[in-house]
Amino acid sequence: MTRRVPGAVWHVGVLVLLAVVLYPVAWVVASTFKPSAAVLGDLRLLPDPATTANYERVFDGVVGIEVGVFFLNSAVLAVLSVVGTVASSAPAAYAFARLRFRGRTTLFAVMIATLLLPVHVLVIPQYVVFRRLGLVDTYVPLLAGKFLATEAFFVFLIVQFIRTLPPELDESAKIDGAGQWSVFRHVVLPLCRPALITTAIFTFIWSWNDFFGPLIYLSSPDKYPLPLALQLFIDETTGSDFGALMAMSVLALVPVVLFFLFFQRFLVEGVSTTGIKG
């Protein structure tokens, strides 16, 4: 009996902590069914009275633009970011992990050093460059770096994963006549599936939730992704529709959650079936 008491206390403590962590999320979801005027002044979870008017206003659009346009814009940016990051980071990581060339160690150290550089330091020079190229108010500034392996974190992640793969696999493929590209494509890349899926998951989430980048480079509302479109419900001069803001925020979370749940399965399978055993 005495042994069960600490266990019960521990479980109760965990449940209390879970409730504290999940309360803001539950409050946001509940707020989507409250009248807009009562959102900020009512901390109760159960709306009284409940209404679906917030979702109706969201689907009616904002500033004359349908909500589907914002979802499409976010999807385009997120999907292209995933494709660009994975397609560029994997070959760069393979070069750092497997190839031998002059200056490899120095270049790898410089790449790692960029992780210590605040992103805001580069905002002004990058904006000036894209401005002179006439690419402001397009998606090019938001996507160009993804296809050029500028995401040092993901390159480093894949490099570390490749280094855990036995070099004997590469040597066996080369004995069979495979070149560097064939080794990368048919041997290393399939075994890097967990690292690639991890890269895809984080890239999708970060791109979908990115507010700062679109705020800097986009000025046309019809090109706004969801995070930037949310601010259209807030008007400092007249009135702010917090109910519709909460409803659109919840809708914006759905694709991220579904993407994570779908690819998490492949991530677990990739780890369990990687085949690297003693």
Summed up, the helix count is 13
Broad structural category: mainly alpha
| Structure summary, number of beta strands | 0
Categorize the overall geometry: globular
State the separation between the terminal residues, measured CA to CA. 44 Å
SSE topology string = HHHHHHHHHHHHH
Description:
With 278 residues, the protein is mainly alpha-helical. 65% of the residues lie in helices and 0% in strands. The chain is built from 13 helices and no strands. The protein has helices at 4-31, 53-59, 67-98, 104-113, 123-132, 140-143, 152-162, 167-175, 180-191, 193-208, 212-217, 226-229, 242-272. The protein is globular, with a radius of gyration of 24 Å. Keywords: Cell membrane, Membrane, Transmembrane, Transmembrane helix, Transport. The chain crosses the membrane at residues 7-30, 70-96, 108-130, 142-162, 183-208, 242-263. Residues 71-263 form the ABC transmembrane type-1 domain. Belongs to the binding-protein-dependent transport system permease family. It is a multi-pass membrane protein.
